[in-house]
Design brief:
The protein is α+β, with helices and mostly antiparallel strands and 623 residues long. Helices cover 50% and strands 19% of the residues.
């Protein structure tokens, strides 16, 4: 029999139940809402349901999208014998199956006579008959249109379920579904907080060591503990005696040294797919530059040759994630689990983030070691300048690792994927977002100027139409300037064709964009920024004039130095990294040009640069 009792939120509910029933319902609901541990909530639900309707047993069945049946999550009143008999409910079963699929309360007075044929009776509720129960009453567990499963009550004596019984169970099942969802939400939030804490600790480890082995040992120990793995290992690509690529364990957690020594013997873990050990998960992950997850090595025929190792070490599941850095795969991180495991995409992404951090840290350590070695071997002034540039690059890489993690998780929280935010929380997190972006810009500028100084000369030369670049820059900045109520006038377009310069068009555009961006930022509303591009005395000369506050004469000589900014109220309001003009100067000088500024306080500023151009006969001779 199917029932359609009123929902928990309607006035009819209280009118259809007696005062004693309402009191018992309230007591049962308070009991299950008192905990946020999902296991404890499950135990309380079945115990309270059994007491609420005075039945012999209660079972909570779960609905899973990946399964066609409904496994039991918790039970009360079955004892050991009943637990052994308990099996997943199937959609064909009258009580549980219909309660879940049809979203209604279903009662069966006698499971032995519920269907006319023996086969149908077995389908009706096989568990009830095996466990010696006669009557069944099941209600769906649903909240916010999410079907969680069903709560089923069992009686050994025949029981004619009343409409009040169905109403009582339906309302309690609604309360149970909410309590269970709240507990699961709390656990997910707690897990995310734990993940953030672990990632924060790992990001600290990435920058806490200057030697490879201590770094890898600390990271794999923390990662193994965080992921609940039995073993963990960091394997790096090395060359064997005959030049063949192999993987060697260079840090591990919980492996015995004999196993590590055997794995590190020549040919122990090969990267050659023709080699007997060259097709394991670690080799596949490194060779294909992607994670390789094995839910159960004893069921995955791809890795059948490695079952002996798994049996000896006592693991079932494993996952290998490559360490990708500087255009190469340096090795992989491998975690081994005692039980079979379904690796979700989110879990693989978390491990991928850790692997990226380890790869960057290894690159940093390798770069630092190389810098130290070069410092020992060379003491020339030119070498010292290059070491300074590489040091800045190293520091920038060190900053990029935690910044990437902070930015990713801040964006995740601000987008409310981890739960709703109050206005105060959002205000604080938006501030974190804004300052993270500023730090990211600073790191990018540091890396940019380091690369420019390391290159020394222009790379990827081409014939560049500077006038066209100036015109394009004006068009791109019109919207930004308009938002600040600043006009842009381009005297270079339209205009007569000009000679081209030999250089890098992207870098020259970067110079124009830097000067134009500064002019717009420092111009008061209602004023105009003027750009011009002319051919003068064998040079292409570009000027950017603004109506800003101007620059004192004593500050003009330092404008193109790194991090220098004029100290006044306007610059403090505008902000910036202090590297834009230094980058522009480095680019112009790379192209054999010059850059300057003309300014008086209160009269605005004119920034200009000149690049030598090619005469037509020069181009013909080169061609």
């Amino acid at each position: 029999m199917a029932y359609s009792p009123p929902s928990a939120s309607t006035p009819e509910t209280s009118r259809s139940l007696g005062l004693d029933q309402v009191a018992r319902l309230q007591e049962a609901s308070l009991s299950i809402a008192a905990s946020l541990d999902s296991g404890e909530v499950l135990r309380r639900v079945v115990a309270a349901a059994r007491t609420l309707l005075a039945v012999d047993a209660a079972v909570l069945f779960q609905r899973e999208s990946s399964r066609s049946d409904f496994p039991a999550l918790a039970s009360d009143g079955l004892g050991n014998e009943g637990t052994v008999l308990l099996s997943p409910a199937r959609p064909a079963e009258i009580a549980v199956g219909r309660a879940i699929t049809q979203q209604q309360v279903v009662g069966v007075e006698d499971v032995a006579t519920a269907r006319p044929s023996d086969a149908d009776r077995r389908r009706a509720d096989g568990f009830a008959e095996r466990a010696g129960f006669c009557s069944v009453l099941a209600a769906p567990l649903t909240t916010a249109n999410v079907r969680l499963g069903a709560l089923a009550l069992y009686a050994r004596e025949r029981r004619a379920w009343s409409h009040e019984d169905a109403t009582l169970l339906s309302v309690f099942a609604t309360h149970a579904a909410v309590a269970l969802q709240n507990a699961r939400l709390y656990e997910r939030l707690h897990q995310r907080a734990s993940d953030l804490q672990a990632l924060f600790e790992l990001s600290h480890l990435f920058n806490a060591f200057v030697e490879r082995e201590p770094l890898l040992s600390a990271v794999i120990a923390r990662l193994t503990d965080w992921m609940g793995a039995k073993y963990g290992a960091v394997m790096l690509v090395e060359r064997g005696e005959e030049g063949e690529a192999e993987l060697k364990i260079r840090a591990h957690a919980n492996f015995n040294e004999a196993y590590v020594a055997r794995a590190n013997t020549p040919g122990g873990v090969s990267l050659d797919p023709r080699h007997p050990t060259g097709n394991g998960p670690a080799s596949v992950a490194v060779r294909e530059s992607r994670p390789c997850a094995v839910g159960d090595v004893f069921l995955d025929d791809r890795f059948a040759p490695f079952r002996l190792y798994a049996h000896q070490a006592g693991y079932h599941a494993l996952v290998a994630v490559p360490l990708c850095g500087q255009g190469r795969v340096a090795g992989c991180i491998v975690l081994y689990f005692a039980q079979r495991r379904d690796f979700g995409q989110a879990e693989l992404q978390r491990m991928g983030a850790v692997a990226d951090g380890v790869a960057l840290a290894l690159d940093r350590i390798q770069l630092s070691e190389r810098l130290v070695q070069e410092a020992v071997e060379r003491h020339a002034d030119a070498q010292t300048d290059r070491l300074k540039a590489e040091f800045v690059s190293t520091v920038s890489h060190e900053l990029r690792t935690p910044l990437t993690i902070i930015k990713g998780y801040t964006d995740l929280v601000v987008s409310e994927q981890a739960g709703p935010l109050s206005e105060t929380q959002r205000k604080f997190l938006v501030g974190v977002q804004r300052n993270t972006a500023r730090l990211t810009d600073l790191v990018s500028d540091l890396l940019d100027i380091s690369r420019l100084e390391a290159e020394g000369s222009v790379t990827g030369e081409e014939e560049v139409d500077v006038a066209r670049i100036v015109a394009d820059a004006c068009g791109e900045y019109e919207r930004v300037a308009g938002e600040r109520n600043v006009g842009i006038t381009c005297l270079a377009c339209p205009g007569p064709p000009m000679p081209t310069v030999r250089g890098d068009s992207a870098r020259i555009l970067q110079v124009v964009a830097n000067l134009l961006s500064n002019a717009v930022k420092y111009s008061p509303g209602g004023e105009t920024v003027t750009l011009d591009c002319v051919d003068r005395d064998g040079e292409i000369v570009v000027t950017v004039a603004d109506q800003g506050p101007g620059i004192p004469p004593e500050a003009q000589g330092r404008l193109f130095q790194r991090f220098y900014r004029v100290d006044n109220s306007t610059t403090r309001q505008v902000g910036g990294t202090g590297l834009g003009l230094a980058i522009a100067k480095a680019i112009v000088e790379q192209h054999g040009g010059r850059i300057w500024v003309q300014s008086e306080p209160g009269q605005g500023s004119v920034f200009g640069f000149a690049l030598p151009h090619q005469q037509p006969q020069q181009r013909e001779q080169e061609e």
